[in-house]
Specification:
heterodimer; A: 413 residues; Peroxisomal Thiolase, Chain A, domain 1; 9-stranded mixed beta sheet; 13 helices; globular; B: 443 residues; Rossmann fold; 8-stranded mixed beta sheet; 18 helices; 11 strands
Amino acid sequence: MNKLRRKVYMTAGFNTVSMGTGRKEFHPKKPRPGLEHYIREAGRGTLAQVGGAANIDEGVIGNFMAARFNSQGNLAAFIPSIDEGLLWKPCTRVEGACASGALALATGVKSVLAETAEMALAVGVEVQNTVKAIYGADILATAGWSQERRTGHAYFFPGKFSDRAGAYYEKYGRERTRKAMARWYRNAIENARLCPTAQEFENRTADLEAVALGEPNPSSFVDHLTVFDCSKVSDGASAIAIASEEGLKRAGISTGDAVEIVGIGQAEADLTVPPADLTRLETTARAVEKALASAGISVGELATVETHDCFTIAGILAVEAIGLAKPGEGPDYVLAGQTARGGRVPFNTTGGLVGWGHPTGATGVHQAVTIWEQLTGRAGKSQIEIPKDRPYGLTVNMGGDDKTVVAIVYRRG
Amino acid sequence: MDYSERLENVAVLGAAGKMGSGIVLLVAMEMADTALRSPSRRFVLHAVDVSHAVLSGLVKYLREQVQKAAEKKIVALRKVYADRADLIDNSDIVRQYVTDVLDIVRPTTMLEAAAEANIIFEAAPENLDLKLKLFAKTASDNPRQPWVFTNTSSIPIEEIAGKARLDGRVMGFHFYNPPAVQKLVELIRGRSTSDEVATFATTLCKSLRKVVVPSADVAGFIGNGHFMRDLLHGVAEVERLAATMPFVEAVYSVNRVSQDFLVRPMGIFQLADYVGIDVCQLIMAVMNPRLPGANLHSALVDRFMALGVGGGQNHDGSQKDGFLQYAKGKIVGVYDPNAKKYVPLSDFQAACDARLGPLPEPAVAWKDVVRDKAKDARLSQFFGALKSVKTSGAELALAYGARSREIGLKLVSDGVARNADDVNQVLLTGFFHAYGPINAYFG
């Protein structure tokens, strides 16, 4: 994508709690709030910060598989339930597996660029605890090619990323990679402990790396990962407003309270073709390259990154795909502490998918909300310092096994 | 007849009972797993019980439990069904496995169906006459010479072999309650039990991933040999304490001490209720005349049974009231046989707890240590501290632990158990204790 033809901002982010195992209030056998609740809570959280529904011209909702998790389609029609002021406004639902959230952002950005909206409301949502994990695995497997499901692993996506981890161990060494994955886990949980909406907020495990270094058990799970290498099953929603300068002005929001979208890159791979090299996230690399080019910045100018660590190995592969480490050197970068909150480029400062949670369709929006909080000084206890000479934030949201990827570059407005 | 051929036709007598239903579940899954490896064979399990009502309860239980088991072993099942083009999602595979297991099970009230089996598992109530009647109709003079695995927890196997004319082909195969959960199987060979039968039993236990402890063919075996004497110690303590306090307070105190102070999963009277006071009475009635001088009898148990207070479980698995009264699985009262009613715990609990005194610090709860690899150090510290506090709770607990140890050692010296490890293994894996009775804590 070329340089944006008009300034586009994001502001007024809001996250619900990421609900699931790990949260004290979560009981698998007790009734829980459904999709409606999460959409309304997140949507209203954003509306309250933009002066209400009157300032919203359009709604976009990202969701992966409510049709199966919740027997629910036509999600765009939940947007007016957020506020009656949204009734009769144009609304769209988008789906791109776990990248649905960022597709909602991209769709809102395009509306603002097209000048059909001065301010769009983007919501991402998923409510997945409606089924046991082994049946959730069936539903999430639809992010892959259905023709591969029968021969795939019972836990389809953990199986896919276990294969990637196995190939990576083979090529670059197992021990160092496992250690870096354990460090990734520790960073994720330590960051989540600073964010009250995070699913792992209450995690009290003393030695996180020791826990994460347990050996995988292929007879009950996958060959090369343990459950600590995986993001959890989550219910949650996030929302953010996407606006032009005009849209911000109308809502009485200064650009300093918003982040500017300075670059955006999208890339799509063929679902029916397996990755050429399991040790690389090629689609991610292409999307990030486009985003950085569109922003006109180099990777060295990034202050912070929110990446799609559905698995710890995906986090390490993303470090390489983004270009912060050469192929095979991602583990060193992580083990040197560069991605930790005190490192050169803090990653996933509220826990990412492993620590904050992964309500699939909400994740892309959640990442944008975290970057907005960090760049505008709203991140509370998880706040990091943003260096003046490299003020950029990056989000990378991935759908399926590196198939649908959206990367966005932000700077404080 | 090899292992899998032998498994082709099995019967379970008392199939809908709490032990029988667990045995049906485990054996039917083993048969289905074997069938999936040898698809040309037909496998049948006759699930025999007295009424259609209890059998439909069995089918419901099986469906739920097989589904849970399939969910747990989904990774392996995907490989088993790998050549089935029609099974795609995990949900398809789980459904297919439930169907495959349930297709093997033939619930029936016709005892005659068991006569065609190669193997008969017997899980009828602990009553020798009843068992003999069942064997007479299914196994005794059957020219097919079926093997009999009895789940008796107390009746000597050789006595059954003689009275039921089952020489060589009967063996004690004692699952613990609930069979699907407790790891232990006590295997008891009678004098005449053939090597072939014993080898099969061991192979089956291995397939079921059970921990096997062999017991000598002595009434009560190891498990009840310990449990009944342990219970009688609790009863004796209650009778002693009841001289100085109300009966319900004595029961509460001994039950609490035998749980919290001894770091056991439940107190002795809760365990008696869980097993069933009626079952305890039947077991003692089997053991007492066969073990001269052991004095395994309780007037208190007989009195409760005469009052119709029996414990045990409802069909949904919930606990029936016995010595103790339960609400949602929690103890809420204690039975007073004089007043013939339950006295709410709230009337006396605080006073009893004060009398027993506090648990030594750092307190150790059973559920926290049972899976802890470093539990020995924690328990040593806890029981060490228990010895230094002079409370009535500590005193009762130390006497209880010492008695339990003495019972365990006697089982070894009497030759019922081969060694101390076997006794401890039974308590660890059959009763879910965190430590065995033969230990250094109370030595």
